[in-house]
Amino acid sequence: MRIGILGCGGTGSYVVPNVLRLLQEKNIKSKLRLIDGDVVEARNIPRQNFCYADIGKNKAAVLAERYAEAFGIPIEVYCKRLVTETYANLFAEVELWIVCVDNNVTRRLMCNTSVRTRRVLDVGNELKYGQVFFHYGYFGTNIYDIHPEIRLDKEGSCAETPQQSYLINYMAANAVTIFLNHLIETHFYPNYFEILFNINGDISKRKIEDYSKYKKLAEKVLQKGGELTNG
Fold it and tell me: What angle do CA 1, 133, 205 make, to 5 degrees?
């Protein structure tokens, strides 16, 4: 099983060992592909899975060096930012992408390429809450209809929020792992599924089969330039 993890920062740095441990436990022959163009900075240490000895090193490379031998699973790394000129070949042969980025530009690159024909777990979080959603590309729900804000140019890194706790990133990584375990055990891939969680430990989920109403809402949201809230 080939799994790609896009983004190895706040959430991705915890997702990597979680996924490797799960694959090892299930005895699944696997290979990981990590993509991140950022280096570890001192401000990352309190809330990301790095230490001061990692400062100045690429995040994906640090995690690959730390965990590949420990879990006995090959890890490929791409230590550059994902841009339109470089992403095409990176998606080849990957069965499931786990997207852990903090900006919509990268999400749009994922949504607009052939990766949409594959399975995608996308995780995002704010200060005290977050969500993991699964979509199945052209074979399932159009993710833009559920989260039209991905089309908008609203950006900003959660790494710039100093009061954000590592706990919300850790919870997000655990939610991804729980969902991945469900996919592995059941071999069931819904058109769209979403898990919502907050820092208090509350978790809710929703499965969407008929999303026509969300498509209508999405059109209204985009016209107003706003966001569609979860609920």
Answer: 120
